[in-house]
Specification:
By secondary structure, the protein is α+β, with helices and mostly antiparallel strands. It has helices at 8-31, 36-83, 102-108, 113-119, 123-126, 132-142, 189-211, 230-236, 254-269, 315-386; strands at 87-91, 97-100, 148-155, 161-172, 178-187, 216-220, 225-228, 273-281, 287-298, 304-313. β6 and β7 form a beta hairpin.
Length: 387
């Protein structure tokens, strides 16, 4: 009846009328046998009536089906409306709720939908933390034919605040005039708090990474860079925004990129730790020797989610090592020369010592003979004195 459909009694009457009409048509057909022109006219009229009957019957059946579908649709809508975890409501442009579901009442801190409709008489003043937001949103919504989305701060019955997603659509009447707002509200306070906490954690982790003096990066299993630290940016002379979301082929020369990509694939096939050394010309135009340390990391399901890597430029260390090697070689050469000189000098000293020993023996023998001669002279002098 709401749709202007006939009731069952009316339909039965029409069907009965149609049945009677068919009987009359049959009678007319029998009478028309005597008149050929009338027979043709009656056949045409009968066909027209039959078509009209069939159309009317189909239209009645379609209306019955439409009415049943509408009732089923209304029942489904009401079921969703009553049981949805999201707040669903209708409100006037002036600022009153026309209809709300239990979830809306719960979000706003009221005991029932009836309490919301009864106690809230000014949505802007009682619900919005910033009262001017409601007028702005309504003005924007009136100028849009689509569903619009807003994120706003709202106030519960007890005065506590919450953050919510608000989806609005303007409902129009048959003449296209706006009659009310239909909306969905979703409390996302906990989600926003979690997002804020996550952002703070990510900021701290980025600060921690940036404090590490060696380049660090991490990428997903598809080879796309997910992040890096300041040292890595400096090492390849690109900003983070030009690195994140790119592959190694987009940030380093192809020859080295191919090598790194193959190493990544090998590491993903055999998760764990990987180390290798690369030597080549870098963006500063100089030869660099770099050691790469890589390891796979896993997600919450213990599945390999990507690779984290560091790189250490050992060019200076190698230069120092080469200088030390050369110095050691020079020291060995000087040491060998010194040893040879010492050997020669030792041999010379040994010869000198032998000569000294021989001369010493001669000198000692001469001294002994001189002593003997002196003794003999003394004895001769004594003998002469006696004489």
């Amino acid at each position: 009846l709401v749709l202007g459909l006939p009731d069952e009694e009316h339909i039965t009457s029409v069907l009965s009328l149609l049945n009677n009409l068919s009987a009359i048509v049959a009678l007319v057909l029998r009478s028309a046998i005597l008149y050929e022109k009338q027979e043709q006219l009656i056949r045409e009229r009968t066909a027209e009536l039959r078509d009209n009957y069939e159309k009317l019957a189909m239209e009645l059946a379609e209306r019955l089906r439409a009415g049943e579908a509408l009732r089923e649709s209304e029942e489904k809508y009401r079921t969703i409306f009553q049981n949805s975890p999201l707040g669903i409501f209708r409100s006037s442009f002036e600022g009153r709720f026309l209809d709300v579901n239990p979830a809306t009442a719960k979000i706003l801190g009221y005991d029932s939908p009836e309490a919301v409709i009864r106690e809230i008489y000014n949505i802007a003043e009682q619900i919005y933390v910033h009262t001017g937001d409601r007028q702005r949103i309504v003005s924007e919504q009136l100028g849009s034919a689509d569903i619009t989305h807003y994120v706003n701060r709202f106030r519960r019955k007890d005065g506590s605040e919450f953050i919510a997603n608000l989806y609005l659509k303007t409902i129009h009447d048959a003449e296209g005039r706006p009659i009310y707002l239909q909306g969905i509200v979703e409390d996302i306070t906990e989600r926003k708090l979690a997002e804020t906490k996550l952002k703070e954690q990510l900021y701290f982790l980025q600060q921690l990474l940036d404090s590490i003096p060696i380049p660090v990066y991490y990428k997903d299993v598809d080879g796309l860079y997910l992040g890096c630290n300041a040292a890595f940016e400096a090492s390849i002379r690109l900003s983070r925004k030009d690195i994140v979301g790119k592959t190694v082929h987009e940030v380093v020369p192809k020859e080295r990129a191919d090598m790194h990509h193959e190493a990544d694939l090998a590491l993903l096939r055999h998760p764990g730790i990987q180390t290798y050394e690369v030597s080549g010309i870098y963006k500063d135009g100089k030869q660099h020797d770099v050691i790469f340390y890589k390891a796979t990391f896993v997600d919450a399901n213990d599945c390999v989610a990507g690779i984290v890597g560091t790189q250490i430029d050992i060019t200076e260390r190698k230069r120092v090592e080469e200088e030390i090697r050369k110095l050691n070689e020079e020291l060995r050469r000087l040491n060998d020369e010194l040893e040879e000189r010492v050997k020669r000098r030792t041999a010379e000293l040994e010869e000198k010592n032998k000569e000294l020993s021989r001369m010493n023996k001669l000198f000692v023998g001469r001294e002994l003979r001189m002593v003997e001669l002196k003794e003999k002279i003394k004895e001769l002098e004594k003998a002469a004195n006696k004489v």
